[in-house]
Specification:
Elements: H1 3-9, H2 18-25, E1 36-38, E2 47-50, E3 56-64, H3 71-88, E4 92-102, H4 109-126, E5 129-137, E6 142-151, E7 167-170, H5 176-185, H6 190-201, H7 205-211, E8 216-221, H8 226-238, E9 240-244, H9 255-260, H10 266-275, E10 279-281, H11 287-294, E11 302-306, H12 308-320, E12 326-333, E13 339-341
Parallel strand pairs: 4-5, 9-13, 10-13
Antiparallel strand pairs: 1-2, 2-3, 3-6, 4-6, 7-11, 7-12, 8-11, 9-12
Length: 342
């Protein structure tokens, strides 16, 4: 059986929706432990803790069911996705612990070996040490990592750091959620699937390193809450508004086709329901593009909030490094909507 069919048959719905998390987090009291520089208050990509005067720890965890059929590729994507949170904070990942959920019947354990081998190869590419992990029996396969990294204080990129006048740069095309949903339910074009796999397996390492050479006020990676969700979190935390030009959005091949055919994940609807109330989308934005705005991504690109005078040079250096970066919008003073798309 295909891995994506296993995820589908187990009723996989991906991450909890942002609305569910919002309800739960409102019930959790805030801690006052010294040393926490970045917690969960502003929905940042990872937490940051001051261990010593010179060492800041960056920590994150991410795992999910199969979104592609090849076990090795699935492992690679899971690793790239988990590492991305540290890169989005301006940090350098150092160690990893694997998180494994796997059935004891119905799937050969060689499949798990291939998944773990794919993840390890991606960790090796990133220079990250695998120290161990934890596994449990589960009828549904899930795989990922808890990642620990380090970051210099001056390099921390938080959701509350964006400023009016920033120019927005996105480093990867959108559409992975629509394409992988099509893979679960239908037979998308092989070249469309391969293009999605290539972008999901690409590390955000080099893009993050380049950003540290320029005046970048904030970064976030585009993952489960989609472009509108993650952009809205930055706008709320930074008390600004964001404008995005839908005509400039980079899209994976086939994305709009699958959008028009209705291959929308449950996460897309959850994102629209929760974030849509704070987003103004012009009537000129086609419905198929509106789906893309809320489409949950896996191992998506970095959304970079750059000071205007540095944006052109940053774009050039990213592109010279083979990163398909595109400028998609800008920021302004806070308004009645966190995000406007025209």
């Amino acid at each position: 059986m295909r891995l994506t069919e296993l995820a589908k048959s187990a009723g996989c719905a991906g991450k909890l929706g942002p609305g569910h998390l919002d309800i739960a987090l409102k019930m959790v009291p805030r801690q006052t432990i010294p040393g926490v520089l970045v917690g969960y208050e502003n929905s940042d990509d990872a937490g940051v803790f001051q261990l010593t005067p010179d060492i800041l720890l960056v920590q994150t965890v991410d795992y999910f069911p199969p979104i592609v059929d090849d076990p090795y590729t699935y492992g690679q994507i899971a690793a790239a996705n988990a590492l991305s949170d540290v890169y989005a904070m301006g940090g350098e990942p150092k160690t990893a612990l694997s998180v494994v959920c796997f059935p004891v019947k119905g799937v050969e354990f060689s499949v798990l070996g291939d998944i773990m081998r794919g993840g390890l190869d991606k960790l090796n590419e990133a220079g990250v040490a695998l120290l161990g992990g934890h596994s449990v029996r589960d009828d549904e396969i899930k795989f990922g990592y808890a990642i620990t990294g380090v970051v210099e204080t001056k390099n921390i990129k938080q959701n509350n750091g964006a400023r009016p006048g920033n120019r927005l740069i996105l480093t990867k095309p959108l559409g992975t959620g629509l394409i992988t949903t099509a893979l679960k339910r239908s037979k998308p074009a092989p070249d469309h699937v391969q293009a999605a796999i290539q972008t999901m397996a690409q590390l955000n390492r080099r893009a993050s390193e380049i950003c540290l050479e320029f005046r970048v006020d904030a970064m976030t990676d585009i993952t489960g809450f989609g472009l509108t969700g993650h952009a809205s979190e930055v706008a709320r935390a930074s008390r600004i508004s964001i404008h995005i030009d839908h005509r400039k959005l980079p899209l994976l091949p086939g994305t709009l086709d699958y959008s028009r055919e209705g291959f929308c994940a449950a996460g897309l609807t959850n994102n629209r329901d929760f974030f849509g109330q704070h987003v103004r989308i012009a009537d000129t934005v086609p419905p198929d593009v509106q789906n893309v705005l809320f489409d949950p991504q896996t191992s998506g690109g970095l959304l970079i909030f750059c000071q205007p005078d540095d944006a052109d040079a940053l774009l050039k250096k990213l592109r010279d490094a083979g990163i398909p970066a595109v400028e998609i919008g800008s920021t302004g003073e806070a308004s009645s909507h966190l995000l406007t798309v025209s």
